[in-house]
């Protein structure tokens, strides 16, 4: 397993989003989040920066374990 990760250390993560940019930065207004939003951390969502569930396919195909960041209002 260690050799797998060592050999893939320099592999590009982002292969689709804003490839013309030196760095991809997105801004989301707090007002647009509403009660809950899921943000993509696998870089494969067609709705990036939001999660569209594509991480499930990626995990199944690769054995990876990535998933979204969920931002939600605290329940009081
Ligand atoms: Fe990327 Fe869900 S699609 S984390």
Automatic annotation (TrEMBL):
Where is it localised?
A: Endoplasmic reticulum membrane; Membrane
Q: Which positions fall inside the Iron-binding zinc finger CDGSH type domain? A: 23-61
Q: Which domain of life is it from?
A: Eukaryota
Family assignment from sequence similarity = Belongs to the mitochondrial carrier (TC 2.A.29) family.
Q: What is this protein called?
A: CDGSH iron-sulfur domain-containing protein 2 homologue
Q: What is the lineage of its organism?
A: Eukaryota, Metazoa, Ecdysozoa, Nematoda, Chromadorea
């Amino acid at each position: 397993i260690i050799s797998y990760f060592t050999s893939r250390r320099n592999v590009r993560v982002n292969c689709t989003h804003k490839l013309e940019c030196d760095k991809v930065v997105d801004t989301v207004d707090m007002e647009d989040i509403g009660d809950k939003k899921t943000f993509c951390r696998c870089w494969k969502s067609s709705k990036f920066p939001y999660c569209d569930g594509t991480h499930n396919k990626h995990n199944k195909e690769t054995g990876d374990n990535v998933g979204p960041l969920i931002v939600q209002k605290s329940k009081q």
